[in-house]
Design goal:
This protein is α/β, with parallel strands linked by helices and 375 residues long. It is built from ten helices and twelve strands. The protein folds into two domains: 9-148 and 216-327 and 338-365, Alkaline Phosphatase, subunit A; 153-202, no CATH class. The strands form two sheets. Strands 1, 5, 6, 7, 8, 9, 10, 11 and 12 form a nine-stranded mixed sheet that branches. Strands 2-4-3 form a three-stranded antiparallel sheet, with no helix packed on it. Helix 7 runs parallel beside helix 8 (253-277).
Length: 375
Amino acid sequence: MTATKKDPVLVILQLTGGNDYMNTVIPHADPLYRDNRPVVGVADDRIVKLNEQIGFHPEVAPLKRFWDSGDMAIIHGVGYANSPRSHFRSMDIWHTCEPDKLGTEGWLGRATRDIDPNKDNVVTAVSFGPSLPRALALPGVPVACVDDLDNFGMLTSIQEEMQRDKIINRFTRLYSPTIGSGFVMDYLGQTGLDSLKAADILNVAPGRYSSTIEYPDTPIARKLKGISQVHQANLGSRVLYCDHGSFDSHSNQVGMHDGLWKDVSAAVSSFFDDLRENDASDNVILMMFSEFGRRVHDNGSGTDHGAAGLVFVMGDAIKGGEYGEYPSSRPENLEQGDLVPNTDFRGVYSAILEDWMGLDANPIVGGQFEKVAFV
C-alpha cells in the first residue's frame, strides 16, 4: 500500500510584546548574567539545564522533552540591524521583511499566494485571534480569521436552518455587486464572500475532531486546540497563526514572565500530544518568535526593550539543537545596552519556506539570506 504524502503545514506562535530572551534560554555559565540581572535573574537551582552553557526558565520545563528527543531547534541572536526598539515598527519588520521602509505585504500572505495561486481554498491560511496579523495581509489573498472556532460562522445563534440560509443568501447578494466597482469595494466585497465560504468550511472542523488530550483552560491553549482541530479536519489549511502576550515586562517581570511561559509551555505540549495521538504531527512544524528581546541589565523591576531575540522551531521533522551563537553580554559588545543580533530573521524564514514549505524564499523575504539548517 502506497502512503499518501502529506502537505507540509506551518504553525506560527507570536509571543507579542518582546519576550525576554535571556530569561527564557538562560546563559547560566556566563557570570555577567548574575551581574546584569540582580532583580529578575532566575536562581541557579531553578534553571532547567540543557547543557553546560544554557538552560530553560523553570516554566519552560515542559518543553524540555522536545529538546531531549531532538525535535526542538533553539535559534540564537535572531533579529536585524539597527533595531528601532519599537513594538509596532519591529513587528512590522518581522511581518513584512522590510527593515528599511514601511512594508504593506505580509510574508505569509505572499507564501499563501504561492501555495494557492488560484485561490481555490479560502482556508489555506487561518489566523486564530480577533484581528488579522500583518504577516498574513495581502490584497487578493483570502485568510480566515477566527476568534472562537466553536462559534465561528455567520449568524450561528440562528438555529432554524432555512431562516439562516435565507439571511446568508442576502449577505451574498449584498457582497457580490461590489466586485468590479473599485479597489476598496472589490476588497470589501471579496473579503465578505471569502468569509462566508470560510465559515461554511471551518464549521465542520469541531465535528471531525476527537481527542483524549485535555488542554488547559487558557487563551493560548484554546487557540492551539482550534489549530489542531482545523489541521485534523483535513481542510487543506497550510499556514496557521496565533499569538499570546503581552510579554512587555518593563515592570513586575518576576511572576508575570513565569505565568506567560507556564501557559505557553502547557499549551504547546498539549498541542503536540494531541497531534501525535491522532497521527497528525509528522507534517507540522511550529515556530515561536517575538519582535525583540529585552535589555541586558534589568531596570530594578523588569527589563526594557532590546534587540536580539530568540526563535524556537519545533516538530517531528526538525533537526534539534542550538543554531547560531548566543550574543555576547560583555559591555563592549553591546549596542545601547542590548544583545546584538547575529542571525537575520529572514534566514530563519528562508529555511522554513524553502526546506519545509517547498517555496522560493527570495521573492517572499526580499532577497537571499543565509538559511539556518534546522529542517
